[in-house]
Amino acid sequence: MIVGKAVPRVDAYDKVTGRAKYVDDYFHSDFLVAKVLHSTIANGLVKKIDTSAAEKIPGVVKIVTCFDVPDICFPTAGHPWSTEEAHQDIADRKLLNRRVRYYGDDVAAVIAEDNVAAERALKAITVEYEEYPPIMDVHQAMSPEATVLHEAFPGNVLKHTVFSVGEYEETPDDPDTVMFEGDYAVSPISHCHIENPGSYAYMKGGKIIVVSSTQLPHICRRVCGQALGIDWGKIRVIKPYIGGGFGNKQDILYEPLNAYLCTVVGGRCVQLSVSREETFMCTRTRHAMEFHMKTTVRKSDGRFISRKMLCYSTKGGYASHGHAITANAANEFKQLYSAEKGVISEAYSVFTNHITAGAMRAYGIPQADFALESFMDDMALKLNMDPVDLRLKNCMREGYEDPVTKIRANSDGLYQCLQKGREVFHWDELRKKYANQTGPVRRGVGVACFNYKTGVYPISLETASARIVLNQDGSIQIQMGATEIGQGADTVFCQMAAEVLSLPMDKVYIFSEQDTDVSPYDSAAYASRQTYVSGKAIKKTAESLKRKILDYAAWMLDMKADELDLQHEKIIVRSTGEERLTLEEVAMESCYSMKESNHLSAEETSHCTDNCFSFGATFVEIEVDIPVGKIKVLNILNLHDSGTLINPQLAAAQVHGGMGMGLGAATAEQMLYDNKGKLLNGNLLDYKLPTAMDLPDLHELFIENADPTGPFGNKSLGEPPIISQPPAIRNALLHATGVAINKLPLNPQRLFEAFSESGLLKEVI
């Protein structure tokens, strides 16, 4: 058995020795350099651009403005193409934009011989704007007086949806019921992947070749074709190793512009690297969201009668992923907890002059989970109930089926995670230990849980392909369209193929780079889909190759294929276990036989029409210094029901990385703007990203309920680990101090203000 073992990563050696090549590693001195000129207003119109002074600077090759590029709007979101127009992504962005919708919008580009010339040219370009008041609040954006950012969306509302389940009843005529309300908010944050977006593009053989750090090369090819108005087959996208993405590289932002720029200089190679400051300002952020929640509860047993949520989501200047992320947040509310009578989940996605929000790890669920799980503890406190007990009484159980998506809970994993965490974390003992504390330094414990789906079916298409070639020595070569972005996907795919074909890992090779001219199609890395969706493709392809191997072996042995099996690189007789051939012998004969040469390979497509829920919970112990306004995490435990673990070591690594991101979102990270819409902390000096020195020891625990829909009983794990740390920490703070803080992050400034307002600060000083 290879599946289920902690085998080393197949890319480990290359990465630790520096042999792994990323986009920047391929840059050469003879590449032209492209730099983008960004707007210095948040809302308005470019009236005129004067490039005359810039064009005189030595080394400047070409300057392109928003008045020069094709008048084509294209979608940037990395979603599979839909043949249904209603489900297609919104095309609202051009290569360069005359209508400015956020501070930093792309209005012109310089191509030069080197970085110095390009930077000098940017400073020499002058832009005349017609400026409008910046819109930095969703409610302001929805007012009749607000400037409309997109003519197709009057009132600046991209979309408004209402999910209604059952018969909602807010105030039943029953003295045993009580209705609770709460307001919560989540700030925008940045992905902060280690490698900034970057690409280079050139022309060869009548094609534009784009080498890019992208999560989705096949979709990137399609978007480049759409943006330039040319056949998609005239674009070739190559993805080398990628240094993280977390959803930010799920939008196609600068590859189309880079492809266009190489065409205006005769096909010469043009590199377009995005700086860290530009990554903050000009790519994507996590959606800021506001929530208002209501729940009617039976006081005698803590059961929920009716539940309602209203969400406002800040889109920023462009649609990006449309309403999908906000709708996902609304789904979390209606799914995680049941209600006896009804649930209403209402959501608005609203355009503002913030930096555009797009996909980020867990896709809207962390925002909703912070609000919902904070609300749970607020209700538990008022009901005088243990927060774990309140969750156990109402949480999603095995057999639940979402009435809209029809996704089912195939395990009782959420309930099990809460029960197991309660036991292992010594929850009950610590709750009692830290009750009724006094003094300036106090401790508390908190809990939060979550659910998360696996892939995007049935909302969107889920399809993946794989190719496996049998080498002459009996080893195999794998090609996937699914992208390795640092999460360990290549290792997992190799384990899956090795499992089906009964091969050792040293006989399995995978081509880690994707090339749209040769790699089989895959939607790529997002939505925690790869081990589930692409895993189905690799399993199906390996099974197909196994059948071909046995068919050929049967011809060699003059036997029937169903009489044979492949085990441990040997062709054996099923009935007796007798070894008749080695896999190498079959491979050599298939390639070089004078009678029946048949090169053995397989390529299969899996059209996935399944989905399922993963579950998890975070238990955390904190210490809070009230006068200083600082939280210290003492102990943290993440529990996950992610089905069967393909590689426990990689699974633990995913959880640890997600916990680090979650702790950052909880305690430090936020993007700040001035009243002109300019980002104030768009660098890693001013943006407070936690380091390894800020993190406690991280503990994980897995509950492996094999899911019947997964290729090996597995389901999502890549995104779930980021979700539940912020509300768990917030709830631990509530337990320690009695002060409820309902907006992230829980940084010293916000703690100081809350402690001052509550009178707690005066009490302890």
Question: How would you sum up this structure, described in words?
Answer:
- By secondary structure, this protein is α+β, with helices and mostly antiparallel strands.
- 28% of the residues lie in helices and 25% in strands.
- It has an 8-stranded mixed sheet, sandwiched between helices.
- α9 packs parallel to α17, α14 crosses α15 (583-592) and α16 (648-667) packs across α17 (725-737).
- The longest helix is centred in the last third of the chain and has 28 residues, at 530-557.
- The termini are far apart.
- The relative contact order is 0.12.
List the helices and strands and how they pair.
Blueprint lengths: L11 H6 L14 E7 L5 E7 L1 H4 L4 E6 L33 E2 L5 E7 L2 H10 L1 E6 L6 H4 L15 E10 L10 E10 L11 E7 L2 E6 L4 H12 L6 E5 L15 H9 L6 E4 L2 H7 L6 E10 L5 E13 L7 H13 L5 E10 L13 H19 L3 H8 L18 H12 L2 H7 L7 E13 L9 E8 L5 E5 L8 H13 L6 E4 L2 E2 L14 H28 L6 E4 L2 E4 L5 E4 H10 L8 E7 L5 E13 L4 E12 L6 H20 L30 E5 L22 H13 L10 H11 L1 H5 L1
Parallel strand pairs: 1-12, 10-11, 14-15, 18-19, 26-27
Antiparallel strand pairs: 1-5, 2-4, 2-6, 3-5, 7-15, 8-13, 9-10, 9-12, 11-20, 13-14, 16-25, 17-18, 17-24, 21-22, 22-23, 25-26
Helix pairs in contact: 5-6, 8-9, 9-17, 13-14, 14-15, 16-17
